[in-house]
Amino acid sequence: MPVVEDRPQRPRRILLRSGKSPYEALSIEEALDRNVIATNSGNLIFSDASHKILETPGTEVVSNGMRMVASEAARINEEYDAFVVPLANAFRPSWEKGLKQLTRLISRLKIPVVVLGVGAQAGLNYNAARLKPLEPVVREFVSAVLDRSASIGVRGEFTERYLKDLGFRDVEVIGCPSLFLYGKDLDVRKRVPELTPESRVAINGSHSAVKSQGLDKVIARAHARYPHLRFIGQNLSDARQLHWRDLSDPNALVTAMPTHPDHPMYREDKVRVYIDPVTWIDDLRGFDFSFGSRIHGNIAALLAGTPATVLCADSRTLELCRYFEIPHRRIDKLPADLDPATLYEEADFGPLLNGHQERFDRFTAFLTRNGLENTFTHGDGGAAFDARMSALSFPPGIRPWNDADPAALGARFGWLQSRMAELATENAQLKKDLAKAGGKATATGATAVYRRARRVVGRPLRRALGAGRG
Question: Is pTM, for the whole model, over 0.85?
């Protein structure tokens, strides 16, 4: 652990890697424009939990808005006492660039850096061969973290073995902070003896699971059997398809996804995406069962007290289910006629609940070893956090845009108009800056602003106009 210089007496400040503060209640439009969910709303489940856990008397937790800029290291060293980094499947080829950026920042920090629950992503067979090209990047990242902390927290057994095979020993399995949102308390129980056609069932899943792992057939069968079925998406592209009918993302090619406007569940208003965990969890309290391939979609249900079963599609979901003893099935071994009623009947939540206290104690011991307090041991158990959250007004889950309701159109066009005004102001300032530069600068900057305006406003505007005509 690095020696931290004496600082003036002030509240301890922790910089938390997260898309936004839990207390920041944004409109749907602004949340999508800023991408505060970092492409997946599941990220906010564990970052909000981390914020609550770390917020103690005398400690302020500040969101970094997912910024990973090495040039800001000096300011961070001056203003903060620790940098806490909750992560999910960060060890994957598609996030190599992000991992390098994060490593560059951490390497310049002189304050403690604590990683909560990082995971490596591979297949269900736990074969790490696909991660071989990533090893130098992972080694550099983990080394930088361990130079600034006592240990690194990982999601489960696969990631622990992966890092130990790379030569690291200070590795602790702590799961994910999300399931410790209520500390040692977790209450999940079956409220109905069995699922019937009248049961309220939530289903979730990724585009890859729908496209190539058979989840499309599972969704179709459940849709036919359960009239009150609801699909809960998590991707930014899902949210934009619901709110703007924006099909510009490659995910829009997966028409079997219920968040696609051509899907019957979209037309029947049986799809949601949430941009705040608090509304997500609250809504799931009204369901009898949740299942699907999204780990945090089902953790949200468990936090709501609603039974859930995970259909594991890769190592990142499987190792977390095994650690927390969450009921699960391998998606590659599902029967052709899978019925959620069967999953509900066989789900045993005893191991999850009976082992929760021990896992919570292991998690808080990890925090203590890394110099961090937690609200359940050193604070009010999150009472102030919960009271502050309950006083705020968060937008409801995003629902399919199926009509030309004047109120819906007014809200969307109002936001578009304000963004156009902001961009016009930026453009005017840029022109002034160019004029001061004596014309030496090119029009590249102006072109960039124009392109940004088209990206931010153009597509939503076209979708809005199209929906309005429909």
Answer: yes
